[in-house]
Structure of L-serine deaminase:
Amino acid sequence: MKIVSRNEELLRDALSCLPQPSSRTSLTSCNKLIRFEDISAAAFKIQYGVQKTPCMYSRLSKQYGMDIYLKKEFLQYTGSVKERGVLYLLMSLPQDQQRKGVIVASDSNFSMAVAYHASELRIPVFVIVCTSTAPARVKMCREYGAMVISYGTTAKDSQVHARRLAQENGYLYLEEEDSAVYLSGLGTVGLEMYEQVPKLDAVIFPAGGHCGLLAGSAAALKHLNPHISIIGVESESFPVLQQSLKAGHPAEDQACNNHHFYGDVSGVCFGSNSLQLTGKLVDKVVAVREEDILISMLRLLEYERATVDAEGAIGLAALVAGKLPELKGKRVAVVICSGNLELHLLQQCIAHALTLDNRVCRFSLVISDCPGDMSKLLEILAREEARVLDIKQERTFVTSELFTVEVICTVETRDKIHTAQLRNALLERYPRTVWTER
């Protein structure tokens, strides 16, 4: 957590462990920054302000050959695990700073958590967003109780404006980083999971740019049981954490996709504290494809009735992709940390996931334009128990013989095997059937 204001001296007591940006923190000093006692203190202090979310046995266990327990952090009030770190930080602020207020500059899960918990603690809170921010996000922050101001066309514009307001009015400018206070709050997830699921063999966390949850929870779990395997999962498109661990310092100037689908998975905002904790305590970091994340979102929606975003689904995606075969037969907990997916993206994600999972397919074929031929095609689809989603007929631009019609059909099937059966049945009757590849 980066703290920037003209009143930084007010935080000396609460945030004395914050590393200086210009200094390199050793593993020894890093270990002092976040102790098990700090995480326990955070858990006691925030216990009535955040949900103790369930860590439940999943029906996906049989499908992937292991006992899977899902820690459902998306059930927090703002839909994100970041409430834990934010609440502990806000409760640690001196009273005079709480009276003056705090300010943030983004529409992220972190900002929404600040908006909600600052309002609950009666701390004046301001959220600065750029003009391109989704209206739904702006509305949500206002409903949480924040004063939301649209300024500038880019995130950098809103950040500069927020800093200026902080300097002029004495607000505390908060930007997500990896202070000891913030990591201790996030680390309470590890404490809860250890209590909820006995004899854990491994725990899977989202990683990527914001690996505070991974680092903080690893500190708690490794203290309680050094034999628990801690695994981080990030996107193949931007393996920021793996590159940083290899280089020995936070990677800079990474080309990250700013699409809202990825959220914090593609960020580069973690600092040396989280990185060194990760390097010391995390056993393995793996990367998954976008396709694996989409299918993971589909599995969670179908089997758990859980609507999550990419950050929430990326941990399970490592199991979906078969990246962790060593966990077969083990007791594994997966943190589902975020559920803030915009509605228009949800529709697109589910449509893509069904196609990737061979559950929706499209084909085209040419039949004679005579009464009864279309009925025969539909009879085959009905016999094969394929559900027709869309069907189009093209007569004008058909390049084959006259008096024929090209039929373009989109159907839903049960799975890959069912799709193959349908394809064989159609090729037997219509040898020139063309399937649209993914």
